[in-house]
Amino acid sequence: MISNREAVTALILARKVARGISWKQVADAIDLSKEWTTAACLGQMTFNKIQAETVGELFDLPDEAIAWLQIAPYKGSLPTAVPTDPLIYRWYEVVNVYGSTIKELIHEEFGDGIMSAIDFSMDIQREEDPNGDRVNVVLSGKFLPYKTY
What is the pLDDT of residues 24-43, one digit of tens each? Predict the structure, then answer.
């Protein structure tokens, strides 16, 4: 019996490894970006019925797991306040070092508000460089101004 979304994520990860499936293959099967698809497979987004069934076929998931893929998840996948995984910690470091700069520049350009993580897209690409390949990440979120009332 599958009792939570985390169990489905663990099952997906195990079957991904066992079957040698890439996130891009999963994304292509449901015709969405590899970034959103990966987040959904890791339990951070909700699949619709057709998407969940397609993912279920790819990973040979039981019906119960396919049902869990269609339930809005509890968002936030990090187990600790300060991440311990080195790659994720570097993102924490980027926000820690550059967060106030990002905030200041967004406020200067757009005014008082936030960048949405709901109306949002992300693109991750390899950028070839003779000195060592680089990771190119583009985050695009709708600006939401604070309202006066």
Answer: 999 999 999 999 999 999 99
* Catalytic residue list contains 90: yes
How far is 72 from 132, CA to CA, in rounded Å? 39
Residue 19 annotated in active site = no
Helix (H) or strand (E) holding 144: strand 134-145
Select which of 19, 93, 100, 121 is catalytic: 93
Clarify whether 116 is annotated catalytic.
Answer: yes
The correct CATH number of 86-145 out of 3.30.160.160, 3.40.190.10, 3.30.1160.10, 3.40.50.300 is 3.30.1160.10
Q: Which pLDDT tens digit goes with each residue over 2-21?
A: 999 999 999 999 999 999 99
Active-site annotation holder among 19, 64, 77, 90:
90
For residue 95, which amino acid is it?
V
**Domain 5-68 falls under CATH 3.40.50.2300:** no
